[in-house]
């Protein structure tokens, strides 16, 4: 107990010291850029401090201090010149306020990304990991890992192209029903009905609760014997025996139709988000448009086509972009539904195959290249959606 408290206090002091060091570093560069000793003092002190910090905290070894000092000296000299001739002390307070968050995000996001790029051009796996640990070096592989992504199957039963097609179908089907279901529910809730707040709260529950709890709860509803879906199918067959002749009856969802099961669960989870976004957009549309349409004798579907849908596009397109990225990368539903029932590959998409390649087959450099390829695909999809959104926005502003 006391040791845990000591660790928490020690962590707190490390974070506080880090924030003070970051603020002091930027304060020096902003405040004293015009002093004569700005360049020589900064070019000596900061590289020395960074070199000793690497040797002490990262166990880099004091024998490599000269090499580290030279690297930090060159980098710091460029930074000092930039602050003296370009920044010139402007916007001191905003940058001091943003500096800790910026550095924290850089450490959490930028460093893993660049390290992943480094791994993708090398060969890290179980047979080379000890060499890396002992020497700090890895065999250079060039573009071989990227070629392997497209030619070497990440799983035993599916290759990259099959997984890509499956992932695109998975994403399209989910987003289609997310938007359709969310749009229908938003239209219903946008009317003047009693207990609208209660309905809206109940509909948001699947999205608001922790995803692990929601997925595992829904997974239980697809149990072959005790799940709600099969229980209701059995009752329907008992009430209407002719349905058995049509092939309707209890199904082994988790083993025979794992991808369909994951899709149904993910649709149920994603509709509330789209409903909230679309409902907010519907409530922002002025009622004067509908009043003018009523005077012109427009029907419900005409108002939906010519007023509601065009005016909701600027709100809907960013939501579709976010939903596409989330669904494309949604490993949670796949893993929680199928990973605990034998880990079948029939429901794997690109990100779940990436997870298995890295942590089941221990192909780390291959997985890094795989992740970069997935990132490139999502970047292209996002750019396409954003361009479509800009076109819809410009048309709306006219």
Topology record:
Elements: H1 2-31, H2 38-57, H3 65-87, H4 92-120, H5 129-135, H6 144-151, H7 160-189, H8 196-208, H9 211-221, H10 228-239, H11 242-245, H12 253-256, H13 258-283, H14 287-295, H15 300-328, H16 331-338, H17 350-359, H18 364-397
Helix pairs in contact: 1-4, 2-3, 4-18, 6-18, 7-13, 7-15, 8-13, 9-13, 9-16, 13-15, 13-16, 15-18, 17-18
Structure summarized in a few sentences:
With about 400 residues, the chain is an all-alpha fold. It is about 75% helix and about 0% strand. The chain has helices spanning about 1-30, 40-55, 65-85, 90-120, 130-135, 145-150, 160-190, 195-210, 210-220, 230-240, 240-245, 255, 260-285, 285-295, 300-330, 330-340, 350-360, 365-395.
Structure report:
The protein has 398 residues and is mostly helical. The protein has 2 domains: 2-113, no CATH class; 153-397, MetI-like fold (Orthogonal Bundle), CATH 1.10.3720. It is 77% helix and 0% strand. The protein has helices spanning 2-31, 38-57, 65-87, 92-120, 129-135, 144-151, 160-189, 196-208, 211-221, 228-239, 242-245, 253-256, 258-283, 287-295, 300-328, 331-338, 350-359, 364-397. Helix 7 (160-189) packs across helix 15. The radius of gyration is 28 Å and the shape is globular. The model has no long low-confidence stretch (mean pLDDT 83).
């Amino acid at each position: 107990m006391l040791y845990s408290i000591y660790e928490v206090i020690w962590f707190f002091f490390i974070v506080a010291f880090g924030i003070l060091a970051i603020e002091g570093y930027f304060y020096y560069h902003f405040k004293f850029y015009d002093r004569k000793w700005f360049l020589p003092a900064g070019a000596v002190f900061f590289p020395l401090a960074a070199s000793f910090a690497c040797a002490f905290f990262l166990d880099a070894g004091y024998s490599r201090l000269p090499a580290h000092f030279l690297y930090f000296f060159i980098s710091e000299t460029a930074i000092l010149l930039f602050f003296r001739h370009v920044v010139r002390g402007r916007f001191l307070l905003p940058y001091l306020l943003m500096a800790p968050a910026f550095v924290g995000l850089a450490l959490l996001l930028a460093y893993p990304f660049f390290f992943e790029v480094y791994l993708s051009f090398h060969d890290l796996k179980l047979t080379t990991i000890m060499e890396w640990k002992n020497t700090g070096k890895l065999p250079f592989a060039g573009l071989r890992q990227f070629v392997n992504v497209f030619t070497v199957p990440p799983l035993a039963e599916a290759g990259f192209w099959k997984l890509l097609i499956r992932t695109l179908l998975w994403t399209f089907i989910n987003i289609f029903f997310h938007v359709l279901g969310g749009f229908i529910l938003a239209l219903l809730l946008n009317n003047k009905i009693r207990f609208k707040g209660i309905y809206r709260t109940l509909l948001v529950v699947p999205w608001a609760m922790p995803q692990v709890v929601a997925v595992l709860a829904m997974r239980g509803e697809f149990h072959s014997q005790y799940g709600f879906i099969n229980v209701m199918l059995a009752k329907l067959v008992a009430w209407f025996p002719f349905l058995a002749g049509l092939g309707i009856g209890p199904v082994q969802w988790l083993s025979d139709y794992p991808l369909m099961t994951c899709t149904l669960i993910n649709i149920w989870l994603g509709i509330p988000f789209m409903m909230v976004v679309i409902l907010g957009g519907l409530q922002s549309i002025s009622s004067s448009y509908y009043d003018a349409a009523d005077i012109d004798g427009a029907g419900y579907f005409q108002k939906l086509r010519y007023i509601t849908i065009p005016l909701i596009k600027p709100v809907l397109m960013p939501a579709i972009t976010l939903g596409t990225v989330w669904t494309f990368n949604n490993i949670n539903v796949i893993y929680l539904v199928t990973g605990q029932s034998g880990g079948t590959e029939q429901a794997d998409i690109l990100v779940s195959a990436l997870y298995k390649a890295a942590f089941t087959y221990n192909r780390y450099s291959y997985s890094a290249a795989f992740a970069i390829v997935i990132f490139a695909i999502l970047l292209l999809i996002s750019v396409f959606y954003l361009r479509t959104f800009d076109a819809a926005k410009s048309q709306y502003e006219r």
